[in-house]
């Protein structure tokens, strides 16, 4: 069993998540920032790949005091469980995600991760080992479900999102599309990785909502599953 998995990203009009140097870009404005904070507060866990941690050093905390208070009133920590998908255990021990704000952290590593890295990370996070060379995502989602995670937000980046989509593990995709062109064939996009080759493999989406927001649009897509595996 796995949680309901939804992806949320901001992309430029040409579909880029950041520059080709992986520099973080302010794509959306304050209204979208508030929306993202709300959906984060409504999630049991929030997940990113190690590429995002190394590029952006995000804290992924809930920012609004009222939203934090709402979580506390429901008996939850102020912040959802923060999860890093990090095969080799490269998350810096000083990373904001491990140090800012309260709440549980999980670093998901693969079997080949250096034992010293694992030991160090255990001081700040629960370390879950799945897979051999890279993290086994279905097994990780199963482990998160067993820990009570029912709603999982994925913030990126493109490599992790591609793997989740390829393995049919995503239920919903929310994209804010902002009013700029970033360009660059090597700039990260929503789904990087190797990509599908044949039309029968493409992942079908149903458009659930379109909303004009500030100078961009927010699209909500529901993923058409090959086979449903959530309960
Ligand atoms: N605009 C936005 O909303 C967001 C933009 N970003 C941008 O995305 C970029 C980072 O994206 P990426 O470099 O693609 O890194 P990523 O954040 O997708 O992490 C990918 C890494 O995760 C690890 N991993 C372990 N097991 C894996 C598995 N089974 N499948 C896939 N990955 C696995 C690998 O080391 C892999 O290189 C940054 O430039 C960041 O600014 C990131 C989040 C949101
Ligand atoms: N939703 C959204 N809109 C933008 O305009 C963005 N630049 C991003 N970027 C990602 O959000 C994360 C920031 O997290 P914290 O504020 O540190 O909690 C970071 O990973 C950016 O890549 N997202």
UniProtKB/TrEMBL annotation:
Keywords carried by this UniProt record: NADP, Oxidoreductase, Riboflavin biosynthesis
Residues in Bacterial bifunctional deaminase-reductase C-terminal domain copies: 3-219
Glycoprotein found in the keyword field: no
Biological pathway: Cofactor biosynthesis; riboflavin biosynthesis
Gene Ontology molecular function: 5-amino-6-(5-phosphoribosylamino)uracil reductase activity; NADP binding
GO terms, biological process: riboflavin biosynthetic process
Record keyword Lyase present: no
Domain of life the protein comes from: Archaea
Catalytic reaction(s) noted: 2,5-diamino-6-(1-D-ribitylamino)pyrimidin-4(3H)-one 5'-phosphate + NAD(+) = 2,5-diamino-6-(1-D-ribosylamino)pyrimidin-4(3H)-one 5'-phosphate + NADH + H(+); 2,5-diamino-6-(1-D-ribitylamino)pyrimidin-4(3H)-one 5'-phosphate + NADP(+) = 2,5-diamino-6-(1-D-ribosylamino)pyrimidin-4(3H)-one 5'-phosphate + NADPH + H(+)
EC number: 1.1.1.302
Subunit structure: Homodimer.
UniProt family annotation: Belongs to the HTP reductase family.
Protein name: 2,5-diamino-6-(ribosylamino)-4(3H)-pyrimidinone 5'-phosphate reductase
Source organism (scientific name): Methanosphaerula palustris (strain ATCC BAA-1556 / DSM 19958 / E1-9c)
């Amino acid at each position: 069993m796995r949680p309901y998995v939804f992806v949320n990203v901001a992309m430029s009009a040409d579909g880029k998540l950041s520059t080709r140097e992986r520099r973080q870009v302010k794509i959306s404005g304050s209204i979208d920032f508030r929306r993202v904070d709300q959906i984060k507060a409504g999630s049991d866990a929030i997940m990113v790949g190690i590429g995002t941690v190394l590029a952006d050093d995000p804290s992924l905390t809930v920012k609004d005091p009222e939203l934090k208070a709402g979580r506390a009133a429901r008996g939850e920590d102020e912040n959802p469980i923060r999860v890093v998908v990090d095969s080799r255990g490269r998350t810096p021990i000083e990373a904001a995600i491990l140090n800012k704000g309260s709440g549980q952290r999980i670093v998901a590593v693969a079997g080949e991760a250096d034992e010293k890295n694992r030991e160090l990370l255990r001081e700040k996070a629960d370390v879950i080992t799945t897979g051999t060379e890279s993290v086994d995502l279905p097994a990780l989602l199963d482990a998160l479900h067993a820990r009570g995670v029912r709603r999982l937000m994925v913030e990126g980046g493109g490599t992790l999102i591609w793997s989740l989509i390829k393995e049919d593990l995503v239920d919903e995709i929310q994209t804010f599309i902002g009013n700029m062109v970033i360009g660059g064939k090597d700039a990260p996009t929503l789904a990087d990785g190797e990509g599908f080759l044949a039309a029968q493999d493409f992942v079908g989406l149903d458009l659930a909502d379109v909303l004009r927001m500030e100078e961009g649009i927010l699209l909500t897509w529901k993923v058409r599953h090959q086979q449903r595996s959530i309960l």
